[in-house]
Specification:
Length: 366
């Protein structure tokens, strides 16, 4: 039974952390019922709905199975970079475990906040794994180990950094959606999170263009008979990556639509848990399952399937060598401009030096 309290300002929050969404409406503090449930419009509500214990347990079990499978495959295929995907599956699993606990203790704000943050950020790990996989496909299958003159290792590095930026933006926005923050902070957090999600989708679109370029290059090389006949399976990996990115994009579009209309009760999406399961949890489950079935480690076989690994001492030596060669190259250009007689030989030396520098750079591992 609810007891009326003096009017208070309510806070608009994220889809599972809402009491009400109007900054001028009043609310009441309700007496918690079974499992701590109170109506979503109550001041002491941490959820916009009554979370389903059964659904949370179901997806906890499903993600736990995928997690165990990926841990096994990481050791079986001996692919260290799969720790990124394992982290993503772990976050998905933890999100639904805390949701299940929160469904039984709905007055515990920590369960609601942790579950929501993990759910919002976990897909970024899977996204990063796709970036890391394409870089290795280029390095292993493409004769030049490059796409558009960019090395596969560099593509991985650049896009992982893009993913980190998106992660930080979304994390900042998600943390601002806590019920303990004021209404304006939560509104800003919603906008920041949407910006981070939009940024993630932009990076995916650019990345997809590079995947298409890789596919076209490989098909052309095969038609000319210039590809490595002993290395097959790139098509399965690429098509699988397409499917994974489509599923991740489905989840992103869902979140953009959900939050673009705000968290007002007139928007049914944040107030019905089924939307989240159908358009967030299920697509991510399928994406990770596809990576189990067509695991990159099945196709990336052998020492050349990984980027060259150098010791810290070797990396420092190569960096010093690279710096010295750049200095010498710059000095040769200056001498060439002075029109000295030996300029021709120095120019030739410059070309030779440039070739040595590029070969040394190729050994660098990112």
């Amino acid at each position: 039974m609810a007891t009326t309290q003096p009017p208070t300002t309510t806070l608009p929050t994220s889809s599972s952390l809402i009491s009400t969404t109007s900054t001028t409406a009043t609310c009441t503090t309700a007496v918690p019922g079974k499992h701590g449930y109170v109506p979503p419009e109550a001041c002491n509500s941490n959820w916009a709905f009554s979370p389903s214990f059964e659904a949370a347990i179901l997806f906890s079990v499903l993600f736990a199975i995928l997690l165990l499978a990926h841990v096994f495959q990481a050791f079986w295929y001996k692919k260290r970079f799969t720790w990124v995907l394992i982290m993503g599956v772990t976050w998905e699993f933890a999100s639904f475990i805390t949701r299940a606990l929160g469904s039984r203790k709905q007055q515990n704000q920590s369960f609601a906040v942790v579950s929501q943050l993990l759910l919002l950020l976990a897909p970024l790990w899977t996204n990063a794994f796709a970036y890391m996989t394409l870089g290795r496909l280029i390095h292993f299958f493409h004769p030049s180990k490059r796409i558009l003159r960019v090395k596969g290792s560099s593509i991985t590095k650049y896009f992982v950094w893009c993913d980190i930026i998106s992660f930080l933006v979304q994390g900042a926005g998600g943390s601002m959606l806590s019920p303990g923050n004021d209404a304006q902070t939560q509104k800003n957090g919603l906008n920041v999170y949407m910006g981070g999600v939009g940024l993630q989708e932009f990076f995916i679109v650019v990345f997809t263009f590079l995947m298409v370029k890789f596919q076209v290059d490989m098909q052309r090389l095969e038609a000319r008979g210039e590809s490595r006949m002993d290395r097959t399976g790139w098509r399965a990996c690429v098509y699988n990556m397409y499917a994974v990115l489509v599923l991740i994009s489905t989840r992103i579009i869902f979140r953009l639509i959900e939050y673009s209309r705000g968290t007002d009760p007139s928007n049914p999406i944040p107030h019905h848990e089924a939307y989240m399961y159908a358009l967030d949890a299920l697509p991510m489950f399928l994406a990770i399952l596809l990576l189990n079935i067509w695991h990159p480690g099945h196709y990336l076989v052998g020492p050349e399937s990984e980027f060259p690994r150098l010791s810290r001492k070797e990396k420092k030596a190569l960096k010093r060598e690279k710096k010295e060669r750049k200095r010498e190259k710059k000095e040769m250009k200056k001498q060439g401009k002075k029109g000295r007689r030996e300029g021709g030989r120095q120019g030739g030396g410059e070309v030779e030096l440039q070739g040595d520098w590029e070969r040394g750079e190729e050994r660098m591992r990112y």
